[in-house]
Known about the structure:
Blueprint: H1 9-13, E1 31-32, E2 39-40, E3 70-75, E4 81-85, E5 101-103, E6 116-117, H2 124-135, H3 148-152, E7 156-191, E8 194-224, H4 231-237, E9 246-247, E10 257-260, H5 265-287, E11 292-321, E12 324-331, E13 337-339, H6 345-372
Parallel strand pairs: 6-11, 7-10
Antiparallel strand pairs: 1-2, 3-4, 3-5, 4-10, 6-9, 7-8, 7-11, 11-12, 12-13
Amino acid sequence: MSSAETLPEEELVEPLVDHVVDADVVPPAGHPCPSCGCPVEPQDKFCPACGTPSEVVEPIKPAGRGADQHKFFQCNACGAKVNVSIDERAFVCPFCDSNYVVEYSPEEIGRQRPEFVIGFGVTPEQAEARFHAWITDNQWYRPGDLHLAKIAEKLRGVYLPFWGFSMLAESRWSASIGEYWYRTETYTTMENGKMVTKTRTVTETEWWPLDGQHHEYYSGYLVSASKGLQQTDADQIKPFNLPALKRYEPFYLAGWSAEEYSIEKEQAHEICKQEFYRREQQNIASFLPGNTHRNLVVQTNFSHENSDLCLLPVYLLSYRYQDKLYRFLVNGQTGKIVGDKPISWRRIGAVIGGIGGLLLLLVVIILILKALY
């Protein structure tokens, strides 16, 4: 079988035009919703997130980086860098529940300005209700001394930074392709003390080599730019609806905390390339003909790369119980929840012991009944 032909360069580049993140978008002359902070454009009569009428809202003109009335903290425990309202007097790190934070000036470290933002579509009240429903589910094996009221007070809406990349993957591949064929064979076996002759169908595989080329444009994978949010947690809280991205303006953060990125673009770029290479291997494997394959080798080059720094809405709640850190997250756009919660092994042990006692009692009753009858 012949290899696939290489497409002309202009055909390879064409998909870049449709990429929603990297398209040439004119910044909207919008304003944040006074109720939930979601970006509202001038033509919108109501907030797309909470439904608040927008006619009563006077647009806030964006100012410079230093005019959005935030102050900046860095957590010395986990490395997170968060900016919060200037009115906030005390700050506890939302990632690790640490009080060991220090103020810093963003001008000293030259942070890249965010390029896109998605507003909060879930209100703080809705997020807290989701937390209570989640933490009280199967409450019988939760610790009795878990003070939910104090924990819920730590729930905080934060704009978290994510790196978004798009790139073209061009690959050469080789593999052994297998096709099944079937034959019928006769065999003898022992049944009821006698030798009998039977037939059965046997599957055989014919292998032959194949190689070719493959290309695909990849985008939409978001890499956490926060040291406080591991990529595994970031993948669980996704997906975000990326067509809702707006060009970033400082006033979108009014009333919310926002974290500065603590993972550099180069490090995030390598993480994204590994993910896109994994997808490229999967796509080539699904493209191969035949019934099966083996020894697939893929060599990939990435080009036409673009990157974006996005701020995405997440509700964070971190708390400590018996010196162990637990975390609860809500996707601030979709409402998806992720988290881990403590369990009471004493209560679970009591239940298991109770079940064991009932089983033992049942066995004793059965033995007594057998002895009597």
